[in-house]
Structure formats: C-alpha cells, structure tokens
Amino acid sequence: MTYSWxxxxxxxxxxxxxxxxxxxxxxxNINWPDPSERTGAIASIHLRRGDVGTFRCAHKQSYRxxxxxxxxxxxxxxxxxxxxxxxxxxxxxxxxxxxxxxxxAPEYExxxxxEHIDAEIRMPRNTSDQISMDIGMEDWLLEISxxxxxxxxxxxxxxVSLLAEIQLFARAELHIIEPLxxxxxxxx
Length: 188
Known about the structure:
There is one protein chain. The protein is of the alpha/beta class. The protein has eight helices and four strands, in the order ααβαβαβαααβα. A four-stranded parallel β-sheet has the order 3-2-1-4, sandwiched between helices. The model has no long low-confidence stretch (mean pLDDT 76).
C-alpha cells in the first residue's frame, strides 16, 4: 500500500517541462545551502496561513487547526538536539511569520519563498464574522471561477508557487508538519 501511494504521489507531482521550468525559476529565489558547505541539517516547518488563519492565528477557521510558530519552534529545538539543525525552510503564506521566526530563533538560518514570491490567493475576509472566516478556499475558488471574467491566472501562479514550495520543503532532512493539514499530509 505504501509503495502504491508513493508512486501515485510521484506521478501526480511529475511536472511537464514548461511547468518544471517555472518551478525551477521560482526556487532560485532561495539561497539553499550547498551540502558540502554546511555543518548541520536542514529542517522544514509548515505553518498554515492564508485560507486557514491570519498572522499568529489571530483569526482562524473554527474547524481547522492553526499552529503557532512557538509550538513548531519547540519541536524544532527538540530535533536540533539530536540532528544539529542549522537551517530552516519555513513554508507559510505569511511573511510576517518568517520575520518573527528570525526574532524568536536567531540561532537558525531562515529561508522562505513567502518573502520572495507573492502568489498567495487572498480571500476576502471579514475577521469579525466567523461565518466569513469559515469559508474554505475550495468553496471560494469554485464560486469565483464560475464568474464570466475569471481567467485562472491567479490560480496558476499560486499552483506553480505551491509546487516550488513542496519541492523545497521536501529537500530538507527533517520535517515539522502542520497537524491535520492536507498539504502537510502530502509533504509527509
């Protein structure tokens, strides 16, 4: 079963040449350390933001989890004791989380595409209305894609950026995932 699942995911993530070229161009924004020049491991952390929650989970969907950076840093520090982590790739749609990570854990070199690529799909939110916060990305995209003026460029940019994020996340030796996240499950 595991082999079949792995092969299915591999097939799904096999990119055609034009898409692969776009993904590679995006990944060049990250100065990934050369294995021969570093002394420790690279960890990756996934923080759900965007459709699930805002910076520091101040506003979030009531039915999805939103882990604070501090919780992930606790996991990172435990792993660092065993694996000597020196670099961390932070997969998040919120650049403020990257800046906070550098303040809270300056002992690590931090990398994130969110500082270089603005491909987040910004859903209109009324943070004082929980019903508005609970609208899922999938429902909102279905709604806007039904409109006659919709051209798909926004989604294409987001998908290509997400593919680059997935590849960068996977390059790390250690992974700290977001509980109950479909994206984290895919990465894992």
